[in-house]
Amino acid sequence: MSAEDDYEKLSKEDREARDKADKEREAAEQAALPYSWSQQLGEVDIVVPVLPGTRGKGLNIVIAKKKLSVGYKGQDPIMSGELCHEIKIEESTWTLEDQKEVHIHLEKINKQQWWENVLTHHPKIDTKKIVPENSQLSDLDGETRGMVEKMMFDNQQKQMGKPTSDELKKMEVLEKFKKSHPELDFSNAKIN
Q1: Spatial distance between the Cα atoms of 27 and 80, rounded to a whole number of angstroms
Q2: Spans of biased composition, class Basic and acidic residues (predicted)?
């Protein structure tokens, strides 16, 4: 039995308590990293604090298709390792802001996938709980927005092994048909 099955059996209050505990644990793990990060479907932005007064030429930054390293020249890196997914190197950049923060912008190759972490050996976030920024969804016209929301719902349902919106509609129509025709026996029917 998976943790997801256990989760489904919990009461609403217990689910909320578990979600809250998971969120607090996740926040603590992310806060302990030597950087902060955020993402959109197509990109990841990372902020690495450095010593005030740091100059760009004193930094050693490597951005590769599947690797990232940030640190001072001649010292162990602040962060280094394998990226959890591949990036477009030519569209990824870094800048030093106010001589105290390195801002790294990574362009994802797969623009339809949320990252669980930046470096594979760092703690993961629960990507099923990511809510895309509404400003972008609301920019879409009604029909497109509805289509995108349906796709997001169906994707989430599939990940949880639950029926998609189309499958739910079919089940609803079938149930209505059964109720309106109680004289028919569906016990041996194979419906697909």
Answers
A1: 21
A2: 8-28
In the chain, the largest separation of any two C-alpha atoms, in whole Å, equals 82
pTM for the model: 0.64
Q: What is the pLDDT of residue 5?
A: 62
The predicted structure's pLDDT at residue 56: 94
Q: Which residue has the tokens 């298709």?
A: 65
d(CA 40, CA 115): 9
Can you give the length of the chain in residues? 192
Name residues of the chain where pLDDT drops below 50.
Answer: 1, 134-135
Report the alpha-carbon distance of residue 164 to residue 154 in Å, rounded.
5
- Environment class of residue 118 by beta-carbon count within 10 Å: exposed (0-12), middle (13-18) or buried (19+)? buried
- Start-to-end CA distance of the chain, whole Å, equals 27
b/e code 37-61 from CB counts within 10 Å (16+ = b): bebeeebbebebebeeebeeeebeb
Q: Tens digit of pLDDT for each residue in 127-182? A: 887 766 544 565 666 677 677 778 888 888 877 888 888 888 888 888 888 888 88
Strand residue runs (E) in 73-139: 79-82, 87-97, 101-108
